Amino acid sequence: MKRSPLLVIFITVFIDLVGFGIVIPVLPFYAQGTKFGATPREVGLLFASYSVMQLIFAPVLGRLSDKYGRRPVLLISLIGTSLGFLILGFATTLWMLFLGRIIDGISGGNISTAQAYIADVTTKENRAKGMGLIGAAFGLGFVFGPAIGGVLSRWGINVPFLFAGTLAFANAILLYFVLPETVTQDHPARISAASGRGWRQLIESLKRPRLGFVLTIYFLSIVAFSIMTAVFSLFMMFRLGYDAFHNGWVFAYVGVISAIIQGGLIGKLVKRFGEPTLVIIGSLLFSASLFATPFIGPAVGC
Hints:
Blueprint: H1 3-32, H2 40-68, H3 70-90, H4 94-106, H5 110-121, H6 127-152, H7 159-178, H8 196-207, H9 209-240, H10 244-273, H11 275-292, H12 298-301
Helix pairs in contact: 1-5, 1-6, 1-7, 1-9, 1-10, 2-3, 2-4, 2-9, 3-4, 3-5, 3-7, 5-6, 6-7, 6-10, 10-11
């Protein structure tokens, strides 16, 4: 397993998740400021526009990486991410915020391409370890991203986006000089990064009762989590008077707890209680926490 390329891939995914984490606590306040005056509905659409573009264009980037190589697609993705964040940081109108989010979403297929790159440079024996780097980058990015966004917001509400854009561009430069290509005429892609097959597999999986039920639960959980992340910062502002700085640390706290559970405790809990029991308990706790959130008052937050 080649360490240098994997380190670059780890940094790429980590920076991508840092940027994602920066957006969560800061964007609602930025969009609702006097410069833009976005409504809560428009804030939700800002979050949704990124995800919709990513859903549409991730398969396209995957097919391009299969045909032209992982390296150019990762470079284009990082440059697009950088451009999207810089547009957010320098935006003067609401439509520019949407433009920045859309560009970031279009270029947001680097996760699947990064996974395909790892598959190209690893063997079957150490591929799981290589893919584990993606999970580690996710966890660390979601811990550091909100905290960085909250801290940088003290120097200006747009500063976190400028920082994220600069970070993504620096990562593109690193990738250009360090990351070798894995897909050539003599060495075609081992695993396709395109999602066409994935969609067919998803449909087939949904037809299987038990697996389809688990996937449905996971989908509903992600929907609920996405709704929470889009409106939580605004809720905390109106209910507790929290600004982007305080919300950044709240989300960082969530990331730390998630990293501890997923990185250390989940294996022991599965061995003791079994996966079905943990799915039920986790879903109930998640649901209970969401139901309890509207009843949080100033006395609870102080």
